[in-house]
Design a protein that fits this description.
signal, 462 residues, Beta-lactamase, 2 domains, 4-stranded antiparallel sheet, 17 helices, alpha+beta, Nuclear Transport Factor 2, Chain: A
């Protein structure tokens, strides 16, 4: 689940951006790629478009898009939105000079989002670019990078499985990994693994089980992708897009599912859980996971946030100490449900990462992807391919890419399914956590993407 994470100041390579924007124009990679994105192509969306998450990072993205459209930006406005360290590296005069070279900057889509950081695909000067933005503890921008959209990561891809293992263990002390082929009967055949059967915290990867329960209801005819759902105050949980909509607003199952998977929208998640019923999700995880019992009762995102942010650590300690489904379910219904989200604050150090979370092994996650690929159909495929998190697999080699990941302070997880042009399907999952400290999520995320990208290359070689 995407929750507050610690940001680290990084020097912004704006000069490289300026050089990029004055270089020879290149076609948008999306125009020739065969990899479905699940996102409409064509006209870019203007600043302020729906889809920008209602997080601190999302609010600063809206401001940046507006500011870039009308430079020069007043010093007072820059000071209000940019950290002192940022402005020390890039003074207002220089920043305004460089903003002047971002003519027509427009948002195409947000591809990854946490409360304190996001990545997005934007367009300026006729080129598609990747924007990375992060905020500090005060909510001010302290990370801002633009790079060519077809250069997803500066970190080199690993050349061997031994290199994957070595670099993975450098990300965090607790890691699990699986690169597997999904066979014709839906089984996961391991190709390479690190502790593939050990249960670990999943973060927002748990949302695969919610989607599975939704797909099952659709298969049984109890829902359709077009079924309208009504937002209630009970499910309006930040971050995300639906959180910003008024109570009583309507949203289809399709839109809620897409937001839950593509930007990890928490309101969408709880709305879908409320629609299918918590016990249906529990039934799904018990069928698909070898560690389903660790997720019963299956937490809503509201309950998760309250346990970690309301009267911490009192509530989290009490919940973690309870034994058995009945005691925990009673505590959620009688104690946690009565609490308000008002006044809750972000946190900067790990909180009960190993005890208040959703859990599964890399093998469990692979199985969930495999099951979804068999039961969902084309509509579910479009939901799962709406965001590739910047993985950027070659569309000639890989015809489809699905993604779900998650993060909170002290945890970062990623899992991808990709289908090759040769007709094979693979799943690569990396689960990392450090219950003792917060680590640099932006740096770790780039490294995990490189490791996953290299893993798919190794899988393709056979």
């Amino acid at each position: 689940m995407h929750l507050p994470s610690r940001s680290t100041r990084v020097l912004i390579p704006f000069l490289a951006v300026a050089l990029t924007l004055t270089a020879c124009s290149r076609p948008d990679p999306g125009e020739s790629s065969g990899t479905p994105s699940g996102t409409a192509s064509g006209t870019a969306a203007p600043a302020g478009v729906a889809g920008v998450p209602g997080t601190q990072a999302g609010r600063q993205l809206r401001w940046f898009l507006d500011a870039a459209a009308k430079p020069p930006v007043a010093d007072a406005d820059l000071t209000a939105h940019l950290s002192a360290d940022f402005l020390a590296d890039v003074p207002p005069a220089k920043l305004n000079e460089l903003l002047g070279q971002l003519a027509g900057l427009r948002l195409e889509r947000v591809t990854e989002s946490t409360p304190a950081a996001l990545t997005a695909q934007v367009r300026a000067g006729g080129q598609s670019l990747r924007l990375a933005l992060g905020v500090d503890a005060d909510g001010k921008i302290n990370v801002l990078r633009l790079s060519q959209a077809d250069q997803p990561s500066a970190a080199p891809a690993p050349a061997t499985w031994d290199e994957v293992d070595r670099r993975l263990r450098a990300v965090a002390p607790d890691v699990g990994f699986l690169a597997a082929e999904v066979t014709g009967d839906g089984a996961c055949r391991p190709v390479h693994a690190v502790a593939p059967t050990a249960p670990r915290p999943l973060g927002s990867i748990f949302k695969l089980y919610v989607l599975g329960a939704v797909a099952e209801q659709i298969r049984r005819g109890r829902l359709t992708w077009d079924t309208p759902l009504t937002l209630t105050s009970k499910v309006l949980i930040p971050p995300g897009e639906l959180y910003q909509r008024p109570v009583g607003s309507k949203v289809t199952v399709r839109e809620a599912a897409k937001l839950m998977i593509s930007i990890s929208d928490n309101a969408a998640t709880d709305l879908l859980m409320d629609t299918v019923d918590r016990r249906a999700v529990e039934s799904q995880v018990l069928r698909w996971s070898g560690h389903g019992e660790l997720n019963v009762p299956f937490l809503t995102t509201r309950e998760f946030v309250l346990l970690k942010a309301a009267r911490y650590p009192e509530l989290a300690d009490a919940y973690a100490a309870l034994k058995g489904e009945r005691q925990r379910r009673s505590y959620l219904e009688k104690t946690v449900a009565a609490l308000s989200l008002d006044g809750l604050k972000d946190w900067s150090e790990p909180r009960h990462v190993g005890t208040v979370e959703w859990f599964g092994s890399p093998e469990d996650v692979c199985r969930a992807f495999a099951r979804l690929s068999r039961v969902g159909g084309e509509e579910l495929g479009r939901v799962m391919s709406a965001n590739d998190a910047g993985l950027g697999l070659d569309g000639k080699t890989w015809t489809a890419t699905w993604y779900k990941g998650g993060s909170e302070v002290g945890l970062l997880t990623m899992s991808f399914l990709a289908r090759s042009a040769a007709g094979k399907t693979y799943v690569v999952t990396a689960l990392t956590s450090d219950p003792g400290r917060a680590y640099d999520e932006a740096k770790a995320g780039g490294e995990l993407l490189s490791l996953v990208r290299g893993s798919f290359a190794l899988l393709a070689k056979g």
